[in-house]
Amino acid sequence: MIEEGRVRKATTPSLPKEQVLAAYRTMLVARRVDDKEIQLKQQNLVFFQINGAGHEAVQVAAAQHLDPGRDWFFTYYRDRALVLALGMTPYEIFLGAVGAAAGPDSKGRQMPNHFGQKRLHLTPPSSPTGTQCLQAVGFAEAGRYLREVVAGAVGQVAEDEVVWVSLGDGTTSEGEFWEALNTACNAKLPVLIVVEDNGYAISVPVDVQMPGGSISRLVKGFPNLSVYEVDGCDYLASYQVLGEAVAGIRREGGPALVHAHVVRPYSHSLSDDERLYKTAAEREAEAQRDPLVRTAALLREAYGVSDEELEALEHEVQAEVNEAAQRALASPQPAPESWAENIYAPADPAAWGSPVPSFADDAPKTMVDLLNACLRDEMARNDRIVVFGEDVADASDERKLSEVKGKGGVFKVTHGLQRQFGSRRVFNSPLAEANIVGRAVGMALRGLKPVVEIQFLDYIWPAYQQIRNELANIRWRSGGEWACPVVVRVPCGGYLKGGGPYHSQSGEILFTHIPGLRVAMPANALDANGMLRTAIRCDDPVIFLEHKHLYRQTHNKAPYPGPDFAVPMGKASTVVAGDDLTVVTYGATVVRAVQAARRLADETGVKADVIDLRWLAPYDWEAIAESVRRTGRALVVHEDTRSFGFGAEIAARIAEELFVYLDAPVKRVAAKDSFVAYAPSLEETILPQVADILAGMREVVTF
Ligand SMILES: Cc1ncc(C[n+]2csc(CCOP(=O)(O)OP(=O)(O)O)c2C)c(N)n1
Ligand SMILES: [Mg+2]
Q1: How far is the CA of 197 from the centre of ligand 2 (A)?
Q2: Are 140 and 48 a contacting pair, CB within 8 Å?
Q3: Which residues 6+ apart lie within 8 Å of 651 measured at CB?
Q4: 259 close to 216: Cβ distance less than 8 angstroms
Q5: Does residue 65 carry a catalytic annotation?
Q6: What structural domains does the chain harbor?
Q7: Per residue in 502-557, pLDDT tens?
Q8: Is the pTM of this model over 0.90?
Q9: Which label site among 195, 287, 340, 647 has the fewest CB atoms less than 10 Å from its CB?
Q10: Does ligand 1 come within 6 angstroms of the Cβ of 68?
Q11: What is the pLDDT of residues 618-660, one digit of tens each?
C-alpha cells in the first residue's frame, strides 16, 4: 500500500525527549479512551462506539504545529488524539459518549466522536462523510473576508490562520471532497486537508475508491496545492511533514493536502467485525505498524526510556481514563423535555424591521425589482452579507463591467449588485450546488450572512445533503452553540408553458418536512421584498422560494416599500375575505384561487376567505384555525403534486384539531401525481387551474 520512495521519512535530528514522551502520552490516552468506551459499550453504558485507533501519531504530530487559539478544525470521527492534543479532556469525550446533558459538543444529541467545542475552535461535526470539506473551505473564505472587508472584525482573524479538515480515504470518493478541492485551490485558501488513509472504508479497500489507490498521486496536478505523503504511524516523520505543510500554508496562504498512511487495528466500529474481510496476515501486518507500538519502541531505543517508565505511564493514563469515565457516567442525562431546544432561534420581531411599508412613490415594481431592491438595501446595511451562486455576478471579470451591462442572475434578481458592492461580496460559484450551500454553511458558522442562489429548484438536489444534514440541524445538534443563518434563494415552479420536467418543479415539502428550516414563498412583489428582509435578518436558515411565474406579472406589482419594510415571520395574509369557505394556499396558486373566489362569489354569492400562507414552515396555524372555525369548510390548494403534499398536512391538522367545526370534509386541489410536461396541453392538465379550484370550492360548499 505504501510505495517506498514516495513516502517521507523523518530526516531531522530527533526531537526532545519530553516532546516525544508528551506525544506518546496523548496517543496512549486516546487509545485507552477507546478501550474504555468499548468496555462501556459492552456493558450497555454507552450506545455506540467508533475508535481512532491507529490514527494517533499523525494527529498528535499535527496538533503540535497548530493552535486552537488561532487555527480552526473541521474534524471527523477518528480524530480523538487530535482533539485531546488540542485540549479536550477525556472527561469531555466521555460526556459525549454517554450522551450527557453537559456534553460539550452536542448535549446528548449526537453519537460519540463528533468533537465540537467552540473554546478549542472545533466546529460542529456531523456524520455524512465529506460534508466537512466544503464547510472548511467556506469557513476559510469567511476568515479572509472578515479580515479584509468587515471593518468591525479587524483583529479577530489571525493573518496566518490554518483551517484543518480531515477525512478518510474512502471519503475522497465523495463529490464534495472534489468540489472543496476545486475552490480551495482556485481561491488559494489556507486549508489543510489531511487524508487519514487506513486503507479501508468499512470493508471497501482503497483501490476501489480511486484509480491507482493513492489520493496524493491523484491530486498532484491541482494548481496551487501543496501535496505531501507520509507514514502517519511514524510520529517523527509526521511531525516533520505536518510542520512543513502548516508552515507552507502560513507563509503562502494556499492549501495543502497531506496524505497520511495510517492503520485501523480495530474494526471500523463496534458494529463491524474486520475479520470478515481482512486476512489474519493483513491484520498482523497492521499490528506491526501500530503507532503506539512504534512510538513506544522509539522511546525505548532512541531516548532510553525504560520499560518500567512506560509501564508507570500506562498505569497513570489508565487511572486517569477510568476516573474520567466514572465521572461522566454520573453526569445527568438530558431532560426529556429539552428535545425541542434550539431547533429554531428565538424569534426576534424587533430585529426584522417595520411591518408597515413606507412608499416613497407609487411606481409599480415587479417581484424581481423588489427582491433586488431588498438585497441592495440589506447589503448596504450589513457588510457581512455575501451573495453567490451560478451566474449571479454581473461579470466574473470585473474589468469588463465598463463595457457590458452585466448578467446578474438568469432571472436578474442579483443584477447590479456586483457593480454596486464589488466582487468580494457578489461572485459566481462553480456550477456545483453542494459547493454553494456547503461553503455558505462554513461562512455562516463564522458569522457571515450568505444569501445564495440556487439557479432552479429542479437542480437543488446535489445540495440537499448540506441542507438536510447540515444547515437545518447545526443549531440543534450543537446544543445552541452554533448557528447557521444562511438564506438560500430558489427560483421554482411551473405555469411557464414550456418549462418541462426540469424547469417547473415545486418540491416545497422536501424542505418544510425538515425541522430547523424556515421556508418562505411570497406570492406578490411587496411580500417578496418584506419577506426577504425578514429572512435575511433572521437567525435561522431560510429556504426562500421564488416562483418564476410570479417574477414579472403585472397583477402582483407594488411600489418600493422602503429599506425597513419586513413581513413578520410566520404570518399569513388574507387576500380575499369571506365567511363561507376557507381556502388555504400560497405561491402561484394564490392568484388563481383569488380568481376562482371572485367567480364563485359572482355566480353564487358564496364568499371565500382566501389565505395566502406566505411562510410555509413554520406556518400560521392560528390564521387557518380562526378562519375554519368561522366558515366550517376548508379547501387547500397548491401547485405541487397532491399525494404526500403540503395540503395533506394542513387537511390532516384541520381534521384533527377542528373536526367539531367542520360541515364538510377538507378538500385538496393540487397537481396530478406526475412530473410537469413540456407540451402546454399536458402542463395545463397536470397543474391545477382556476377551473379546478372553482370546482373544488363548489364541491366543498355544496357538501
Ligand atoms: C455520506 C455517507 N455515506 C455513508 C456513510 C456510512 N459510513 C460511515 S463511515 C464510512 C466509511 C468511511 O471510510 P473512510 O473515509 O475511509 O474513513 P475511515 O472510517 O476509514 O477512517 C461509511 C461508509 C456516511 N456516514 N456518510
Ligand atoms: Mg479509511
Answers
A1: 5
A2: no
A3: 634, 636, 666, 667, 668
A4: yes
A5: no
A6: 17-333 (3.40.50.970), 355-550 (3.40.50.970), 573-701 (3.40.50.920)
A7: 999 999 999 999 999 999 999 999 999 999 999 999 999 999 999 999 999 999 99
A8: yes
A9: 340
A10: no
A11: 999 999 999 999 999 999 999 999 999 999 999 999 999 999 9
